[in-house]
Amino acid sequence: MFNTHFPPQRLSHITSDVKLLKVLVFEMANHFFALPISTIFKVINCPPVTNTADSSLGITDFEGQTVTVVNLAQKLSPQNSATERMQKRFLILSQTRQGELYGIPIDNSPALIELPMDNIRPLPLSASQVNPLNIATHVAILPKSEGSLKIFLLGHIVN
């Protein structure tokens, strides 16, 4: 189960003037990441993944088609074993701009939440050189009682 900082919330206090973005949030390498729900094809139990020469990429089969698997954990922590990092419980299937499926393996169930658009900011170009920012396009800052929570929104990882 998804056991993180996202307790169920009622959004009734948000007026209809506030625009919301529905996202699927997951934790990886001590950071939170999100994909817009509009880009999600399906979340499945993670099938076996075959590594490629680039340890942050792999391939798997889904319903008769070969799917590229992007190992974000390996991209964020290259010192860890690629084999260990590819053995995940779930696979988020998303689509590139060209409609090609790709998968992101994760350990725990993702959470579906709504982010107020006013809390989402683009990341500066200079941040694209630093992990975990080099795989994100935007950040959502959510106020919490003990500070703020940052959720990095992923762009299209595979071109």
UniProtKB/TrEMBL annotation:
<dbReference type="Pfam" id="PF01584">
    <property type="entry name" value="CheW"/>
</dbReference>
<protein>
    <submittedName>
        <fullName>CheW protein</fullName>
    </submittedName>
</protein>
<feature type="domain" description="CheW-like">
    <location>
        <begin position="20"/>
        <end position="159"/>
    </location>
</feature>
<dbReference type="InterPro" id="IPR002545">
    <property type="entry name" value="CheW-lke_dom"/>
</dbReference>
<dbReference type="GO" id="GO:0007165">
    <property type="term" value="P:signal transduction"/>
</dbReference>
<dbReference type="InterPro" id="IPR036061">
    <property type="entry name" value="CheW-like_dom_sf"/>
</dbReference>
<dbReference type="GO" id="GO:0006935">
    <property type="term" value="P:chemotaxis"/>
</dbReference>
